[in-house]
Amino acid sequence: MTTLLPTALVGSLPKPSWLSDPETLWAPWRLDGPELYEAKHDALRLSAAEQHNAGLDIICDGEQTRQHFVTTFIEHLSGVDFEHRETVRIRNRYDASVPTVVGPVERKQPVFVEDAKLLRAQTEKPIKWTLPGPMTMIDTLADQHYGSREKLAWEFARILNQEAKELEAAGVDIIQFDEPAFNVFFDELKDWGVAALERAAEGLSCETAVHICYGYGIKANNDWKATLGNQWRQYEESFPLLQRSTLDIVSLESQNSRVPIDLIGLLRGKKVMIGAIDVASDTVETPEQVADTLRAALRHVDADKLIASTNCGMAPLKRQVARDKMVALAEGARLVRQELESGLIAATPADTVSV
Fold first, then answer.
1. Distance separating alpha carbons of residues 145 and 103, to the nearest angstrom
2. What is the C-alpha to C-alpha distance for residues 65 and 41, in angstroms, rounded to an integer?
3. In Å, how far from its chain's centre is CA 130?
4. Taking CA 42 as the corner, what is the angle to CA 130 and CA 132, rounded to the nearest 5 degrees?
5. Residue 101: enclosing H or E segment and its boundaries?
6. CB neighbours of 80 closer than 8 A, spacing ≥ 6?
7. DSSP at 204
8. What is the per-residue pLDDT for 1?
9. What is the Cβ-side half-sphere exposure of residue 78, based on CA atoms within 13 angstroms?
10. Of 312, 318, 307, whose CA–CA distance to 130 is shortest?
11. Which residues of the chain have pLDDT under 70?
12. What is the C-alpha to C-alpha distance for residues 155 and 151, in angstroms, rounded to an integer?
């Protein structure tokens, strides 16, 4: 990626109404069999085209071929029973009925590789693919086999690494692991969470990213955020560890959040994917609002290490709102890019950063 201040989505976009219910997270498919296969790929092509039309620099699949950002991957693994479900507390926030691990987990065949090849054929721009991270995977399951969250996470890390290597071979330029659980389970994060994530990314030559956010704009997440006070400082737990990790990029939430922007200083030396679009609101940001977020971030990260993005996925939004937000993201980044190129903004922040 040679573009200064490139733009990208975190992951999901709304699905077309002919594929699943609009403005609904994890809605059931409206088709099945060969018709569903074709419809998913039509949606992927459309998603890539809409990102191109909006002017984004890094293209993703919009997660059009998956119903859920975690369980769609797990569906393809052996050792997990989707008929035997249990109710568990997801990230200490809300209860959900989830599948159960009943035996050794194994990946018998690639999960997303054919989809990634299709995305690669849609664009000459860099492409990014998202996978669930090991800690977030174990938090989305019940376990009746391993008896240890850590042991199961390491098994998932091994399986994710297999998938990631095949995605890289299919032409993926950035592989992103989604780890919202890093904002909740701090003891596990420090004991083995980052190490398991590094195992998932082991041996990759493409760039690797980890996305940590405060979740989709659903009631359970919004209610949780309302309890976090005037400053959300959860990133203080993960950023120092990730700064020392083998991961290349760290993706974080910023726009309309209470995350102190100077926490980015804890990542000095890493690439930062800053959330400049709020996914919990239908209000479309102006390019200038996006630019303000990017300018604030540039006080703490070098310009050649900043990527402009969204706070989280946009799956629950209206499709036109998502399109307009993508355009605002691209236009806001263009404004700041011009300021950097003309010298109005320093490309390198001061060395001293308070957090």
1. 6
2. 7
3. 6
4. 15
5. strand 94-107
6. 74, 99, 100, 101, 102, 105, 141
7. -
8. 63
9. 6
10. 312
11. 1, 350-355
12. 6
How many other C-beta atoms lie within 10 A of the C-beta of residue 66? 23
- Going by their DSSP bridges, the two strands 94-107 and 77-90 should be labelled as antiparallel
Which residues sit opposite 69 in a β-bridge? none
And the tokens for 114?
Answer: 């054919």
Fill in the DSSP letter of residue 176.
E
The type of residue at 247 is L
Given a contact cutoff of 8 angstroms between Cβ atoms, the answer to whether 51 and 60 are in contact is yes
Taking the C-alpha atoms of residue 291 and residue 299, their distance in angstroms, rounded to an integer, is 13
**How many helices (H) and strands (E) are present in the chain, helices listed first?**
11, 9
| Pairwise CA distance, residues 22 & 19, whole Å | 9
DSSP 41-66: HHHHHHHHHHHHHHT-SSB--TTTT-
**If we measure between CA atoms, which residue out of 206, 276, 246, 239 comes closest to residue 5?**
276
Q: Cβ(97)–Cβ(84) under 8 Å?
A: no
How crowded is the C-beta side of 68, counted as CA atoms within 13 Å?
17
Dist CA 281 CA 8 (whole Å): 19
Rounded alpha-carbon distances, angstroms, from residue 7 to 55, 117, 187, 220, 307: 8, 21, 33, 29, 6
User: Three-state SS for 111?
Assistant: coil
In this predicted structure, what is the pLDDT of residue 68? 92
Instruction: Give the span between the Cα atoms of 241 and 267, in whole angstroms.
Output: 9
pLDDT of residue 351: 57
Beta strand 207-212 with 142-143 is unpaired
CA 57, 63, 64, 65 dihedral sign is positive
Q: What tokens does 283 get?
A: 């209000």
pLDDT at 352: 46
* Cβ atoms within 10 Å, residue 306: 24
Integer Cα distance of 320 and 239 in angstroms: 34
What is the model's pTM?
0.96
The structure tokens listed for 212 are: 């940590």
